[in-house]
What we know:
- By secondary structure, this protein is an alpha+beta fold.
- The protein has 2 domains: 2-77 and 201-208, Glutaredoxin (3-Layer(aba) Sandwich); 84-193, Glutathione S-transferase Yfyf (Class Pi), Chain A, domain 2.
- It has 7 helices and 4 strands, in the order βαβαββααααα.
- The chain has a 4-stranded mixed sheet, with helices on one face.
- α1 packs parallel to α3 and α4 (84-114) packs antiparallel against α5 (123-146).
- The model has no long low-confidence stretch (mean pLDDT 95).
- Residues 9-11, 33, 38, 51-53, 65-66, 98 line the site of glutathione.
Amino acid sequence: MKLYDTQRSGNAWKVRLLAGFLNKSLQRVTLSIDRGNLGDPEFLKRSPLGMVPTLELDDGRTISESIAILQFLAHGTPWWPIAALDQAYVLMWLSFEQSQHMHPLAKLRLHLSLHRDRGVGDEDMVRFKDEAKRALHLLDDQLARQGSSGWVATQAHPSIADVALYPYTRLASMGGIDLGAFQNLSPWLSRMESLPGYQPLFPGRPELNFSTVEIEDKPK
Ligand SMILES: N[C@@H](CCC(=O)N[C@@H](CS)C(=O)NCC(=O)O)C(=O)O
C-alpha cells in the first residue's frame, strides 16, 4: 500500500503512527504543498479532494480522509474495538477531532509557525486560539474521566481516537498554546509515545516534531 503524504502533515502523521503501532509497512509518496504537488493531475486522479493523506491499495483503489484510512487499517485489530458501544465512542471522538479539534489547532500551527504570515493578535488567530483551547479542555476533561490508565474512548487498549487526536495535540505549542495548562494531556501524550512502534513526525528524528521547515531545507 502507498501513502500519499507531506513531510509535516499532522493528518498524514496519524496514518503513519497507526501503521507503526500495527507494524504495517506503507510505501510513502511524499508531496510538497509548498511546491504545488497537490495540484498535480496524477495526484488528483488518486485524491479527488486534492488532500493528503490518501492511501492507495495494491489494486489501485484509493481512500482519502484520515479517519476513514485509520478505520480501514485498524479493522480487525484492537485499535478498532468490536463492541457496538465502544465503536460508537470511538466515532464520537473521531467526529470531535474533525469538527472541533484539528481545524483550529492546524490553522494556528500553519499561520503562526509554518508560514508565519499572521500575528497572534489577528482576529482569526484569536478566534482559532479560543476554539483550540476549548477543544483541548474537552479532551482534558475526557481523559480525567477515563482515569490514568484509560484512553480517550476506550479503557483496556488505545483506539484510533487516540491516534487521531495525538498529532495536533502534540503540536499545539506551535500555535502558541501551553499544554502545561492542562493536567491530563502531557501524561497521555507521553503514554502514546511509549507504545511499541511509535513513529515521530520525521522517522527516527523525534527532535524534529516541531520543525517549521521541510527537512531538505535544514530544519531549525
Ligand atoms: N479532513 C481531512 C483534512 C486533510 C487535510 O487538511 N490535509 C491537508 C494537509 S494536513 C492538505 O492536504 N492540505 C492541502 C491544501 O490545503 O491544499 C483529513 O482528516 O484527512
